[in-house]
């Protein structure tokens, strides 16, 4: 029986710390939006670590950064690990970076131990997972999975008016490879949970078996600007009031269900944005999610009906632009079982769970068997600088990733027939 390997915890945690220092502003806030200068600096650091680890570093046309280990020049479909290193605004250090750097640690550990896999291993950092600057989210992995044409994706206009393709070229990460040039044998992503379940239940490892559906829309309500002091309340066409009604309705509608639907208005802008002018325009985003496809569709339909009713009542017009729409995803049961088995063998407690967040794994699941490993988020906090996961939990998750990849890549002499879906 070959003894279990363990990743180099100090190096893994040290790199997480280093990456978390890249993209901080004068106030110390971490913001590494996709294809920004900060993203370039983060990518440069990651690419250097990949090269140090002896990986071939490749970039595709949508900027996905991939490190490949082909033991003995071996070809074939790789077992891929990864996630993203772009962040939200004022972000934490763990979202995405954990999975990328753990993937790198897995490759280094296997190389150092002489545990050659029967197929290549790849570590991917996908472009624009967060979707904060360019919509949709998970854009790089979506393109790699063939869900969006690369030309269309490159033409995406960001919230700051920039064009993704131009920004990728500017930062030096518009690569030559066609997205999807590597079709993985299997994909496994380690990620922090970003929710409260594992910590609340005192469980070390989440074996993620599915991921909820996501609907993103941008709503523009048009009313009429007028004088705040002279316009009688009955004569107003107030876009801000209409938006406020929609925002509070969304919360009540999500709450009225069985507790699984969530609804968020994360951006809201009023124009002309002046204290004494009735808002002429309200532009806001709507993020709806539910693990059940039918319930998500019903939520969207009810939202559309409500928006129309509010517009009629307030004598404003409402137009909607679709930003993202992804159905719920079921992950590969064989990999989920392999995660449970690997955690169990290390004496780590596990539970199956549904991902509330979107992840690159959901796109890779379109083209290969895929699943995810979650580790606890302290206080369930994420998309926030207070995002935190205990070092021991991060390392435990990386070691489970290692065991699963050893098995999926045929590097484990104890299970020569191991493979995705096994
Ligand atoms: C990606 O982080 C998401 O919004 O779920
Ligand atoms: Mn993430
Ligand atoms: Mn995120």
List the uncertain runs.
415-422
The tally of domains stands at 2
**CATH fold naming of the largest domain:** Aminopeptidase
Mean pLDDT: 96
Number of strand segments: 14
CATH class of the largest domain: Alpha Beta
What is the rounded distance between the termini? 20 Å
Secondary structure: elements and pairs:
Elements: H1 9-20, H2 37-52, E1 56-59, E2 65-69, E3 79-83, H3 97-112, E4 121-125, H4 139-144, H5 150-154, H6 164-170, E5 186-192, H7 197-201, E6 205-211, E7 213-222, H8 239-255, E8 262-264, E9 268-271, E10 281-290, H9 293-314, E11 317-326, E12 329-330, H10 333-345, E13 350-355, H11 360-364, E14 370-375, H12 391-408
Parallel strand pairs: 3-4, 3-5, 5-14, 6-13
Antiparallel strand pairs: 1-2, 2-4, 6-12, 6-14, 7-10, 7-11, 8-10, 9-10
Helix pairs in contact: 1-3, 3-12, 8-9, 10-12
This protein binds glyoxylic acid (GLV) and manganese (II) ion (MN) (2 copies).
Could you walk me through the main structural features you see in this protein, from its secondary elements to its overall organization?
The chain is of the alpha/beta class. The protein folds into two domains: 9-211 and 328-408, Aminopeptidase (3-Layer(aba) Sandwich), CATH 3.40.630.10; 213-326, 2-Layer Sandwich (Alpha-Beta Plaits). Helices cover 34% and strands 20% of the residues. The protein has twelve helices and 14 strands. It has helices at residues 9-20, 37-52, 97-112, 139-144, 150-154, 164-170, 197-201, 239-255, 293-314, 333-345, 360-364, 391-408, and strands at 56-59, 65-69, 79-83, 121-125, 186-192, 205-211, 213-222, 262-264, 268-271, 281-290, 317-326, 329-330, 350-355, 370-375. The strands form two sheets. Strands 1, 2, 3, 4, 5, 6, 12, 13 and 14 form a nine-stranded mixed sheet that branches. Helix 1 (9-20) packs antiparallel against helix 3 (97-112) and helix 8 (239-255) runs antiparallel to helix 9 (293-314). It is elongated and about 80 Å long. 49% of the residues are buried. The model is unreliable at 415-422 (pLDDT under 50). The structure holds glyoxylic acid and manganese (II) ion (2 copies). Glyoxylic acid binds next to loops.
């Amino acid at each position: 029986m070959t003894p279990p390997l363990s990743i180099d915890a100090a190096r893994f945690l040290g790199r997480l710390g280093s990456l978390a220092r890249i993209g901080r502003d004068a106030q110390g806030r971490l913001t590494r939006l996709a294809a920004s200068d900060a993203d370039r600096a983060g990518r440069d650091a990651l690419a250097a670590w990949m090269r140090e680890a002896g990986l071939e570093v490749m970039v595709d046309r949508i900027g996905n950064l991939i490190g490949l280990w082909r033991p003995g020049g071996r070809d074939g479909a790789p077992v891929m690990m990864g996630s993203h290193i772009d962040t939200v605004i004022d972000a934490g250090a763990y979202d995405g970076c954990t999975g990328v750097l753990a993937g790198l640690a897995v490759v280094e550990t296997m190389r150092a131990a002489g545990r050659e896999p029967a197929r290549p291993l790849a570590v991917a950092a996908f472009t624009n997972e967060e979707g904060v600057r360019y919509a949709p989210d998970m854009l790089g992995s979506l393109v790699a999975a063939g869900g969006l044409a690369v030309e269309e994706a490159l033409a995406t206009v960001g919230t700051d008016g920039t064009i993704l393709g131009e920004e990728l070229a500017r930062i030096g990460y518009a690569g030559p490879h066609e997205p999807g040039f590597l079709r993985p044998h299997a994909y496994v992503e380690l990620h922090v949970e970003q929710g409260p379940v594992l910590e609340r239940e005192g469980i070390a490892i989440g074996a993620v078996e599915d991921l909820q559906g996501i609907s993103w829309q941008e709503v523009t309500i048009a009313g009429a600007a007028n004088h705040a002091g002279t316009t009688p309340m009955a004569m107003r066409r107030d876009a801000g009031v209409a938006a406020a009604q929609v925002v509070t309705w969304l919360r009540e509608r999500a709450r009225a269900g069985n507790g699984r639907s969530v609804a968020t208005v994360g951006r809201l802008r009023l124009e002309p944005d002046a204290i004494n002018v009735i808002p002429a325009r309200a532009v806001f985003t709507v993020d709806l999610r539910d693990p059940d496809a039918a319930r998500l569709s019903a939520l969207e339909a009810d939202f559309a009906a409500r928006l129309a009713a509010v517009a009629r009542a307030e004598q404003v017009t409402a137009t909607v632009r679709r930003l993202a729409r992804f159905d719920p995803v079921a992950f590969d049961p064989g990999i989920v079982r392999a995660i449970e088995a690997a955690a169990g063998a290390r004496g780590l407690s596990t539970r199956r769970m549904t991902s509330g967040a979107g992840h690159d794994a959901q796109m890779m699941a379109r083209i290969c068997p895929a699943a995810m490993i979650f580790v606890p988020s302290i206080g369930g906090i994420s998309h926030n600088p207070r995002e935190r996961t205990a070092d021991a939990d991060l390392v435990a998750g990386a070691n489970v990733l290692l065991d699963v990849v050893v098995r999926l890549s045929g590097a484990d002499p104890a299970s020569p027939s191991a493979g995705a879906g096994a």
